[in-house]
Amino acid sequence: MRVAIIGAGVAGLATAKVLKQAGHEVLGYDRTPDVGGVWSRTRRYPGLTTQSPKAQYSFSDFRMPRDFPQWPTGAQVQKYLAAYADEYELPLRLSTEVTAVRPAGGGWVVQTSSGTETFDRVVAANGVFCEPAVPSYPGLDEFTAAGGLLCAGTDFHDASDARGKHVLVVGYGKSACDVTVPISEVAASTDVIARQMLWKVPRRIGGVLNFKLLLLTRMGEALFRYIRLRGLEKFLHGPGNPVRRNMINSIGGVSVRQYGLAKLDLVPAGHMEDIVRGAIGLATEGFFEGVAAGTITVRRDRTITRLLARSGKPHAELSDGTVLPADLVVCATGFTQGVPFLPADIQARLLDERGNFMLYRQIRPLGVPGLYFNGYNSSFFSPLNAEMAAVWIAADLADAVPLPDETQMRQAVVDQLAFMDEATNTHHCRGTKIIPFSMHNVDEVLDDLGLNIPKPVRAAHWLNPVNPAAYRRVAAKLVRRIGVAENAPAPVVRLAPEPEGPIAV
Q1: pLDDT at residue 444 in the model
Q2: Is the N end or the C end of the chain the one with fewer CB atoms within 10 Å?
Q3: Largest Cα–Cα distance of the chain, in whole Å?
Q4: Residue among 385, 378, 382 nearest 427 (CA)
Q5: What CA–CA distance (Å, rounded) separates 171 from 319?
Q6: 320 secondary structure, DSSP code
C-alpha cells in the first residue's frame, strides 16, 4: 500500500522504517526543516535533555553513540534521529506542512503546502507535544506595549535572549526546570511560578544509584496498580501493599534529603505515589542548587493572574497579589493534542464527549478505517513504544491482527480511559499518555500479535532496566510472517555513527 505518515519525530520515523521494511511505499511529511519532532532545532529550548537515559531512549536496533552522555542533549537526540532516517533511507518531505487530510474512494487525499497526493492509508504521527498550550492572560496588550514578551518554552531557543532581563518561567515540570537553569545564569532575576509542586526524582539517588534501576524496570512499573493485575502484581497490590507504598514514597524521602527541599520550602504536599503517577519529573541538574544560591526563586502554589505595565515597564501580578517585574515570561505549561488537518466529522468520531482520543491500543481509531495513530502513547520508552505500535500497524495492514468486534473495542477503550482517569487523576493528556504503564502497553500490543519477547527476558527486566535491544527481532519476525522476508534486514543492533565534531553537553 501507499501510506502517508504525518510527522517525522520519533513515532513518524519508526513507522516509516517498519512499514517500509514490511514492503509498503511510505512518504513522511513534516513542517519543520529537520527530523526530530520535539527535538527539532525549531523547537529546542536551552537546557533540553532526555527524561530517560540514552539506553532506554533508543530504538531497539539502533543504539545511540557510545560517547553520548547518559542523558543526551536535545541537539544530540536530533542528530541520532537524523542518522536513523539516513540509515534506513526513509522517504521524507521536510518543510512541508500537511494542511488537510480527507477520505476519498477508499483511500485518502493529503493536501500539503506543496501540493496534493493520494494514499491508501494515513498514519497520524504529529505528536502529542505538537502545539504548546500558552495561557491567555488579561492585560497582554498592555504588557506587550511596555516591551514585555510572552512565549512558549518551545519558542525560546537562545538563553542569551534573557540576558539582563527579569524572567518568569511558568510551570514546574521537567521542561520548566530545564529551561530555568540556563536562563538563571544570565538573567537579572529568574522566578518560577509553580501552580503545583511535583516530586523530582534524582538522576542518581543518593548521588550513586541511577534512578533507572528503580523506576525504569518492570518492578518499578508494577508498583503502580494497572487495570489488570498479573503475577507478582497481585501480591504487590494485595498482601504486599504496605511494602509497595513504602518503596515508592521512600524515593520522595531521598529527594527531600538529597536536595534539602524542606529548607528550600519545596516539599510537595501529599505522598510521592499520589503525584508521581500523574507527572513524574526528573530533577534538573543545577536547579535546586540555583534555588539554594538565590539565583532562582520558586513561587510555589501560585499562578499569574494578569500581565500589566507599571511605571512604563512590564510586570506580572500573581494570585497572592505579588507584582513582579517581567521583561520575559516563558510558559512551559504543557501542550494541546489535536489533528487540525482532519475534517470536523472525523475529528468528532475520534473523541469522546470530554475530548479524549478513542484509540484502541493507542493506535486504531474506532469507526475510521484506514487511519492510524502512532506516538499517541507518550511513555518512558517512547522510541520502543513507537516501534512496537508500528509493528502492530504493519500487522493490521496485512489483516494479521485478530481484532475484537467494534463494540468490544469501544468498550475496551472506554474502560481504559476510565481507569487512566483514576490512575493519573485525569492527567493523561486526553488519553494519549500511558505513563506509568509503558511496558504494559508494549505487552498488550505484542500479545495481540503473538510476538512478545520470551518470558525469561521479560523476567530479567523486573530487576534490571528495560533494554529496548531485547525487541530488535520483533519487526523482522512479523515481516517474515506476512510474507515479505526478502525486505527484512538482519536482526542486529546498529550503532548510530559517532558525531563528526564536538557537541556541547
Answers
A1: 97
A2: C
A3: 73
A4: 378
A5: 14
A6: T
Question: Is 80 exceeded by the pLDDT of residue 37?
Answer: yes
Angle between helix 10-21 and helix 474-481 axes, rounded to 10 deg: 40
3-class DSSP state for residue 381? coil
| Residue-wise pLDDT tens digits, 401-412 | 999 999 999 999
The pLDDT of 175-182, averaged and rounded, is 96
Burial 162-176 (b: 16+ CB within 10 A, else e): beebbbbbbbbbbbb
CATH for 2-130+337-454+468-495 (3.40.640.10, 3.30.1490.20, 3.50.50.60, 3.30.300.30): 3.50.50.60
For residue 30, what pLDDT is reported? 97
350 and 368 Cβ atoms separated by less than 8 Å:
yes
Q: What phi and psi values does residue 206 have, to the nearest 5 degrees?
A: 70, 10
Contact by Cβ (8 Å): 48, 173: no
Question: Can you tell me whether residue 119 is helix, strand or coil?
Answer: strand
pTM attached to this predicted model: 0.94
Q: Which helix (H) or strand (E) holds 142?
A: helix 140-145
For residue 148, give the C-alpha cell: 514585555
Write the CA distances from 424 to 74, 162, 441, integer angstroms. Answer: 27, 35, 16
Residue 19 contacts residue 394 (beta carbons within 8 Å): yes
Q: At 448, list the grid cell.
A: 495481540
Letter for the amino acid at 495? L
| 180: its cell numbers | 530555568
Neighbours of 351 (CB within 10 A): 17
How far apart, in whole angstroms, are the C-alpha atoms of residue 415 and residue 435?
17
Residues 436 and 274: beta-carbon distance below 8 Å = no
Q: Identify which of 193, 133, 221 has the alpha carbon closest to the alpha carbon of residue 429.
A: 133
Whether residue 63 has pLDDT greater than 70:
yes
d(CA 155, CA 43): 6
Residue 321, SS3 per DSSP: coil
Q: Which three cell numbers stand for residue 371?
A: 487511519
Amino acid at 266: L
Give, for 373, the enclosing helix (H) or strand (E): strand 371-373
DSSP calls for 323-369: EEE-SEEEE---EE---TTS-HHHHHHHB-TTS-B-EETTTEETT-T
The CATH number of the domain covering residues in 134-334: 3.50.50.60
Angle between helices 438-449 and 382-397 (to 10 degrees): 20
From the list 459, 59, 63, 56, the residue with the least C-alpha distance to 282 is 56
Question: What is the distance between the alpha carbons of residues 124 and 150, in angstroms, rounded to a whole number?
Answer: 30
Q: What is the pLDDT of residue 200?
A: 87
Q: Is the peptide bond before 436 cis (omega within 30 degrees of 0)?
A: yes
Backbone dihedral angles phi then psi of residue 504, each to the nearest 5 degrees: -65, 135
Count CB-CB contacts under 10 A for residue 291: 23
Q: Which residue has the cell 509542586?
A: 197
Give the DSSP H/E element, type plus range, for residue 104.
strand 98-104
